[in-house]
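Progress against Task 2.4 (sequence-to-structure conversion) is shown through the following example record, which the project officer requested during the mid-term review.
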Amino acid sequence: MQNLVVLTGAGMSAESGIRTFRDSNGLWEEYDVMEVASIQGWYKNPALILSFYNERRKQMFDCEPNTGHKLLADLEKKFKVRIITQNIDNLHEKAGSSQVLHLHGELTKARSSADPSLVYEIGNKEIKIGEMCEKGSQLRPFIVWFGEEVPKLEEAIHLVECADILCIIGTSLNVYPAAGLLHYAPAGCPVYLIDPNPPSGLPKRIHVIAKGAGEGVAEFTKELKYEK
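Structure tokens generated for the chain above:
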């Protein structure tokens, strides 16, 4: 089987009702991103951070995978699909994708604020001030914030380096280091970008499908000559 590596961003889940930061009526209109998505924000106001991600988690469990999620899961019948997502929701997994690498963490998990290796499955439960890990430190969302290293970046780079086909869906290609993954695709590896508003100045090697996730992935599967 060919290695199909898929990099997904906020636009992948937008059609499922997950609110993004950048779009109109996005979360940036309500919150300063550095207040709710940075390690400095956590040190300044952990209660606000916990409330913000508790709300995101609650919203996530009210959402279902969209057509794009489901089509990617179905591609596992013909390709060795590896999904690298910048999203913290679980919609790829709910759709049936079996190999998903979360670069920026997962809403369904909590971790120790002192020991990053202590990670706990919490499902749809809230995290509250005063909830401690087994070593006595406050639990925090299992999220990679601005100002923190991306622990799974090297693993993601390796996946892209081994890609036979690379598909990028719903990401602005502005958030680093994730945006830099494109440059690790092997020479000759076909690269697709699915986004209704693709950025300008893209490398010529990128085949643009200017559609949303559902329609775009449907067109992408036709490009691959994949039939159920």
